[in-house]
Amino acid sequence: MWDQVGQALNHSMTRMLSQVASLLPGVIALIAALLVSALVAWVLAAILRRSLTSFGFDQRVAQWGFPGLAEWSPLKSPTRLVTRAIGWAVMLVGFLIGLSAFDGPLTSELVVRLLTYLPNVVAAVVVLAAGSLIARFLARSVLIGAVNMNLQYAWLLSAGVKWLVNVLAVAMALEHLAIGGDIIRLAFGILFGGIVLALALAVGLGSKELVSRSLDREVHKTSSQKMQEPVGHL
Amino acid sequence: MELDTSSQPELEELERLAGAELVVGVLGAGAAEEAADSAAMVREGLAGLSKIPRAVLISNNGAHRPAPATPAVPDADQPLAVLSFGLPAPGPADTLQQTRSTAYRRVFTVGGKLGVRACGVIASQPHAATPQWIYRIVQPVIDLGFDLVAPRYTRHKMEGLLNRSVLAPLHRALYGEQLQNPMGPDFGLSGKLLRQVLKEASVPRRRDQNDLMATIASTASRAGFQVCESHLGVLVQQPTDWTNLSSLLAEVLGPVFLELERQAVFWQSVRGSKPVPKFGSPEVVSDDAATLDVRRMIESFHLGIQNLQDVWRLVLPPATLFELVKLSRLPREQFRMPDDLWVRIVYDFALGHRLRTISRDHLLRSITPLYLGWIASYAQEMEKAGAAEVEARIELLARAYEANKSYLVSRWRWPDRFNP
User: Fold this and answer.
1) Domains (range + CATH), chain A
2) What is the complex's ipTM, to 2 decimals?
């Protein structure tokens, strides 16, 4: 009986060792892929960092309307943020290549799913970036216009427009990523509606001021003319 | 620049003329009777010249049409051929500046086609213009050989403020010539200068820009043309549209800053400024007693300080922003914007325009509260001042522009490194 137990143990040991041995090439391939991708990521990041630094990327990012990006970046440098992001993307690709070397159905399916999901991530990033750009541009237009119209609620209007576009962009990005589903739609509807309501109130309050000012001008036309007439610009 | 806006009958008229010595543009809103009045006014104005030139009048013939020109048949007693051509109709969204610029292009193009010796344009107030205006605009060109006659107007102290605060002193500091109205809008030009302006305006990248009026005086200065001024009389101001002040600023300052960028090599070598010869005598206007309520302007300035600092920070250095914040804390009676501060603001905005630090439209519109701050400061300072004191005050501002030119040059050359 003891012989049979010993044989069973031997067989299971052999099976396990052979399974581990069959995994070894995959593990080594994964490690090799990670090492190579790390090297490629490092070289690529170094080249990119040098190019972006000579291009003055950090200053230009602020000029393009993203001064806040520096706050989110490591060492407050958008250049580092970009190079690290690229580096990690290369590492991720290396990891996926290494993972597919196992040649198991599970790992293959995982890799395929991740790769098919990648375009959605890229689209979401593009939507977010475009949304942020448009939000900043519109917010600045509204702010300058409202200040020039002497509206006390200029900042509120501008912030409202900015958040309106940002919320829209985030909702679209999440839709692309297929995250949240109905909850996101519901939350977006509530937030969007809330911002529109806040803006309507702000515009209403601002308009009240404008209307009263214009009525004032009509009623006291003579004194208003005194204020306006003596000034010419060209 | 092509004569692409002319109708076929007008082109035929031009060819039939086989050249003219003078082209005169009277750029009014247009009506048939006005065109006839313009023709009479031009005839009378030119009659005073030592030798009456063969002239072409370009004015609105009432229909804004591409339609046959209306030749006034010259007779034996009147050796003056005045032909009236239509001007293109302004588009529904066109502003005064755009309309003027388009009309200017038309006049210059016709002048270029005809190979004229001189050109005169009355654009400021054609209804109030007199034959004397025509004479004063073209006489120095035709009889005395000047290349550019810029206008000098008699104005109330609170009129022409953009001109007083930015256009004239900026032109003086950059191009070295002391002109009261470097952007006209009434000008007399020699054929040589007209062709030079047309040549420079025909560069493809500049063709679509409505900046012809901003280029005339600077082109004359850069190319060494003879420049003078003529006293034209009282200029009645256009009613101020306060709701569109920022559009006006963007429309006027945009071309000026573009021109500044284009002429950068030239103005960096110019030192000081010189007065130009003046013709005619100034009219005297009584000082208006109406006082200006600056409260709203200062409120506008404060609102800008509260809300637009993030925008200004992209253009103005920290020291200037600090000065502005300090200024906003002064009580209304003591509100005075120092000349150096205002001049540096204008220079920094010109630099920001060149660097495209932010959208150019945003940049130009965001200067509005600062400009209103300057007006409020000027109005309070000049409340009881007479004409001579106002002139002296404007002279001081112009000198501040000259004194701070080194600041502009440094920032222009090293925008990143030089940041006081």
Assistant:
1) 10-103 (no CATH), 117-219 (1.10.287)
2) 0.84
